[in-house]
C-alpha cells in the first residue's frame, strides 16, 4: 500500500485494527499510547508523533518499507 497523506494512514490503521478485532483502548494500551492519541491518529491528525505512530504500526504487525517511489 502506498500512503501519501495522514488521512490515508489513519484509515489504514483503523482498518487494520478492526480486522484484528482490537478496540482503540486495547491497541492504545498495548502500544503505550493514550486512546485520545489513537483516535486523532485514525482521524488523520497531521501533527501526530512519529515515534508513537511507529509503535502502533509495530503492534499491528505492519512492516514499513521506505523504498523509493
Unreliable stretches (pLDDT < 50, length at least 5) are none
Overall body shape: globular
Structural Rg: 11 Å
Calculate the terminal CA-CA distance, rounded to whole Å.
Answer: 12 Å
Count of individual helical segments: 4
Overall mean pLDDT: 94
Return the structural class: mainly alpha
Q: Using DSSP, what is the number of strands?
A: 0
Oligomer: single chain
**Portion in strands:** under 5%
- Let me know the largest β-sheet: none
> Helix and strand string, N-terminal first?
HHHH
Characterise the protein shown here:
- With 69 residues, this protein is mainly alpha-helical.
- The protein is built from four helices and no strands.
- It has helices spanning 6-19, 24-31, 35-42, 50-59.
- The chain is globular, with a radius of gyration of 11 Å.
Feature tags:
69 residues; mainly alpha; 4 helices
Describe this structure in a few short sentences.
The protein is mostly helical and 69 residues long. It has helices at 6-19, 24-31, 35-42, 50-59.
Question: Topology of this structure?
Answer:
Blueprint: H1 6-19, H2 24-31, H3 35-42, H4 50-59
Helix pairs in contact: 2-3, 2-4
Amino acid at each position: 500500500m502506498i500512503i501519501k497523506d495522514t488521512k490515508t494512514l489513519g484509515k489504514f490503521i483503523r482498518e487494520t485494527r478492526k480486522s484484528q478485532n482490537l478496540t482503540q483502548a486495547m491497541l492504545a494500551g498495548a502500544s503505550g499510547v493514550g486512546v485520545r492519541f489513537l483516535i486523532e491518529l485514525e482521524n488523520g491528525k497531521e501533527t501526530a508523533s512519529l515515534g508513537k505512530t511507529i509503535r502502533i504500526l509495530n503492534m499491528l504487525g505492519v512492516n514499513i518499507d521506505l523504498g523509493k517511489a
